[in-house]
Every structure is written in structure tokens, then in C-alpha cells.
Amino acid sequence: CVRLWRALWSHLPQCLLSLAELPPSEFMQVADSTWLVLSVVSNGREAPGCQATGVTKIARSVIAPLAEHHVSVLMLSTYQTDFILVRERDLPVVIHTLAGEFDIYREESGECVPVTCDDVSNGFLKPKPPASPTLHPVQSPQTRFCVLTVAPDTLPAIATMLIDVLFYSHGPPWDAATSSQDLDSITFFSFSLIEGYISIVMDAETQKRFPSDLLLTSSTGELWRMVRIGGQPLGFDECGIVAQIAEPLAAADISAYYISTFNFDHALVPEEGIAEVIQLLQQRQESGR
């Protein structure tokens, strides 16, 4: 069977404590919602040594139903697996929406404990039918990206380079007011460390700065192109943004990595399929007008 595992349910207080420990700053923006993590696993186990197919595998079963019930999600694809973040206040709707197709568990002290609709029925309100979601503009820069991982014990060997790339090497942020509609290139670097597994997304030029023998990728060594969603910061209250990309790609059986950020959403697709992806998304835009 396929199970939905609420990872970090029991770890939420620690996450909040880490945020509380950060010094107050006028330069730090924090969303007002608390988010919980959903992880979709098959037969109760994930496959940490295999690359996932991203939003394609969960578009119809998770992303689309949540969008239909007006649940806003943040998506984080990694080298190993995929995570969906939902707001804590939406938990009753999430459980009731997915319980028909999934066995749902929460993690308590490292153990998976079954969750039923009765556990969260208090305060559950049947959601109103959502209005037609806004179809946001998409842009596809020419930059080519790599999806990589590294063994945790080799991380110290590239730590200095990681710090340089993360904090010192990039230019000023992209300015929506001065940028053209079609971007020639985009600066994007993503590093995640989740339960000991490391996932990195970087452009092909940045990859050349790292020791090639320490960066691990798929056997094909494929490169990826990006589709960025949103002409301005998206916010967190709107639903259906991930579904805008996930549903047409799933229908065409095109794998994709999807990374939501504070301001924009980003989908990575195999380089050889970018023309088909752009065509599919343009058709969806036209049909939604």
C-alpha cells in the first residue's frame, strides 16, 4: 500500500525553538503560519538511494486533491524524495482529503502511529468549493542545472566552497521591476540537509567549481532546465500553484523536481523535454483564460 507519513509531527517544538533562537532582525521575514511536513512513502519505506520523479508521482493523488479542497502547499523535492508542507491549521482538511486513498501516520519518538479522521475531527469544516485558481506566468531561463548529492562524511571537504557559493558569490537579487519577461539566466542554488541526506541543486557552471569526485548524481548525469512560476512574490494563501505545473506534467508523464521558496516556485525538468513542457504550460494558460 501507499502510506502518507507525517514526518516531523513530533519534532515541531524543536523546529520552533531553532527559529526562536535566531536574533531578532529587521532583515528577516517570517511567514505567520506554522507548517508541517508530509512525506509520501510506498509500503512504509522510502528509497534513499534512488532519485525520485518529483511532483509527477504525487500530482494526481496528493497535490490535485489538496488544491481542490483549497489547501495551500509548499513543495520541496530533494535528490532522495519529496516533501509537501501544509499549514498546521489546515491539518483536519488534509487528513479528511487524503484518508480515502492513503494510510496516514504521524511520527512519535521515531515510531509511526496510525492517524484516523476521528483524531482530527474536532473543528473540521467542510471546505467550500474553491474558485478557479489563478494561472501564474512562467519563465524558463537558459541556465542548465544539476541535481546532486554528496556523502555526509565528505561534506567538510566542500564546506568552504559551499559557504562561498551560498553567501558571497552571487550578485544582487533579481529585480522584477527591471527584468525582462524572458530571463536569459537565473541565479539559483539550493542546499538541503534532511535526516542526514544531502541534496543540492546548482547551475552547471557552479558545479565546475566543486571537486567532481565528491558530487554524486544519476548515472546518466542529466542536466535540467528550470520553469519559474510567478511574476511577483506569490505569498502563502493561494492554493493550486503547484498543481498548475504538476498536473499537466503528470498527464504527459514528465518527471520534475519542484522547489517552493519564500517568493517564487521553481520546477526543474529534464533539459531535453523543456520545449514540450513550455508548450504544455502555454496551452494550459490559454485554456484558462
TrEMBL record:
Instruction: Identify the stretch annotated as signal peptide in this record.
Output: 1-20
Any idea where the CASTOR ACT domain is?
Answer: 31-98, 221-282
| Pfam families per the UniProt record, alphabetical | ACT_7, CASTOR1_ACT-like
| Keyword Ubl conjugation assigned | yes
Its main localization is: cytoplasm
Task: Output the GO biological process annotations, alphabetical, semicolon-separated.
Answer: negative regulation of TORC1 signaling
Q: Which residues form the Cytosolic arginine sensor for mTORC1 subunit 1/2 ACT-like domain?
A: 136-219
List, in alphabetical order, the Gene Ontology terms for molecular function in this entry: arginine binding; identical protein binding
What would be one Gene Ontology cellular-component term for the protein? cytosol
Q: Does the keyword Phosphoprotein apply?
A: yes
> What are the UniProt keywords, alphabetically?
Cytoplasm, Phosphoprotein, Signal, Ubl conjugation
Q: Which InterPro entries match?
A: ACT-like_dom_sf, CASTOR1_ACT-like, CASTOR_ACT_dom, CASTOR_fam, CASTOR_mTORC1
Please give the start and end residues of each transmembrane region: none
| PANTHER family linked to this entry | CHROMOSOME 1, WHOLE GENOME SHOTGUN SEQUENCE, CYTOSOLIC ARGININE SENSOR FOR MTORC1 SUBUNIT 1
Q: Which family does it belong to?
A: Belongs to the GATS family.
The entry describes its oligomerization and partners as: Forms homodimers and heterodimers with CASTOR2. Interacts with the GATOR2 complex which is composed of MIOS, SEC13, SEH1L, WDR24 and WDR59; the interaction is negatively regulated by arginine. Interacts with TM4SF5; the interaction is positively regulated by leucine and is negatively regulated by arginine.
Summary of the function given for this chain in its UniProt record: Functions as an intracellular arginine sensor within the amino acid-sensing branch of the TORC1 signaling pathway. As a homodimer or a heterodimer with CASTOR2, binds and inhibits the GATOR subcomplex GATOR2 and thereby mTORC1. Binding of arginine to CASTOR1 allosterically disrupts the interaction of CASTOR1-containing dimers with GATOR2 which can in turn activate mTORC1 and the TORC1 signaling pathway.
Which protein, by its recorded name, is this?
Cytosolic arginine sensor for mTORC1 subunit 1
Species of provenance: Erithacus rubecula
Give the gene name. Castor1
